[in-house]
Amino acid sequence: MSTHHAMTYVELAADDLEASRAFYAQAFGWEFNDYGPTYVGIRSPTGEGEVGGLNTQGAGGPGGPLVLVQSADVDASFAAVEAAGGRVVEPLAPYPGGRRFTFADPAGTVLGVFQPD
């Protein structure tokens, strides 16, 4: 099944990364991949890949998740979002595992688009 432009990842805002990590580990048994002091990935229940992350860098805002859309061509997706009238919130940039950007839709909802390596 193609994942191009499918919602495949959700980031949760975490003011205190360790407290959030401990909460989700205890409450749901989630396991994590460490990416430094500001981000951990939430491992998939199957053990293969990730389904989301905890992010101290704002994510979707206080208490709000950031939904991420996967792209097979993030440069084309970036151009399409701009052409459709989306407002770029964070420019296209590398991250561990690929490249991504965030944008606001006409209603102000912020989403991210990423392309894994």
Automatic annotation (TrEMBL):
Entry's transmembrane regions: none
Residues annotated as domain VOC: 6-116
InterPro entries cross-referenced by the UniProt entry: Anthracycline_SecMetBiosynth (IPR052164), Glyas_Bleomycin-R_OHBP_Dase (IPR029068), Glyas_Fos-R_dOase_dom (IPR004360), VOC_core (IPR037523)
Classification via PANTHER family: GLYOXALASE FAMILY PROTEIN, GLYOXALASE-RELATED
Annotated source species: Nocardioides aestuarii
Any matching Pfam family: Glyoxalase
CDD domains xref list: SgaA_N_like (cd07247)
Residues in coiled coil: none
UniProt name for this protein: VOC family protein
The organism's taxonomic lineage, starting at the top: Bacteria, Bacillati, Actinomycetota, Actinomycetes, Propionibacteriales
